[in-house]
């Protein structure tokens, strides 16, 4: 049972996302102390929206996920909506962007930055 609970609260970071986060981090001052924060906010055209920001702090309610030396943090409340999701970085003709593949989303907007459950 414990393995199922851990899996349900998992969040993956792809190699593409880790490479892009590392490259963006290098452009910032004191980049070694930066982590990528992924969070869910109310709003957007589908009810909830994803946010991606650099942060220097890891809070008590944060969960830390690491890939290739890059840390991504998700707060406890956001992780409830992101459980089992994956952060990716896509490079397509329409542009380059971070994308969340979220199994909890019942629908999402065309731009992929907001979703509904």
Task: Outline the structure in words.
The radius of gyration is 14 Å and the shape is globular. The chain is built from 3 helices and 9 strands; from the N terminus they run H-E-H-E-E-E-E-H-E-E-E-E. The protein has one domain (2-116): Hypothetical Protein Aq_1857, Chain: A, CATH 2.60.300.12. The strands form 2 sheets. A 6-stranded mixed sheet has the order 4-5-2-3-9-8. Strands 1-6-7 form a 3-stranded mixed sheet. With 117 residues, the chain is of the alpha+beta class. The relative contact order is 0.24. Residues 1-7 have low confidence and may be disordered. Helix content is 22%, strand content 44%.
In short:
This protein has a six-stranded mixed β-sheet. The chain has three helices and nine strands.
Record the SSE blueprint.
Layout: H1 2-8, E1 11-13, H2 15-26, E2 35-42, E3 48-55, E4 62-67, E5 70-75, H3 76-82, E6 85-92, E7 95-101, E8 107-108, E9 114-116
Parallel strand pairs: 1-6, 2-5
Antiparallel strand pairs: 2-3, 3-9, 4-5, 6-7, 8-9
């Amino acid at each position: 049972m414990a393995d199922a609970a851990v899996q349900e609260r998992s969040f993956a970071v792809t190699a593409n996302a880790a490479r892009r986060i590392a490259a963006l981090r290098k452009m910032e001052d004191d980049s070694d102390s930066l982590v990528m924060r992924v969070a869910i906010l109310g709003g957007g055209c589908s009810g909830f929206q994803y946010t991606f920001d650099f942060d220097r702090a890891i809070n008590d309610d944060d969960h830390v996920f690491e890939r290739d030396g890059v840390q991504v943090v998700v707060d406890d409340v956001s992780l409830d909506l992101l459980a089992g999701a994956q952060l990716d970085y896509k490079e397509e003709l329409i542009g380059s962007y971070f994308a969340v593949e979220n199994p909890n989303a019942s629908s999402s907007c065309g731009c992929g930055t907001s979703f509904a459950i």
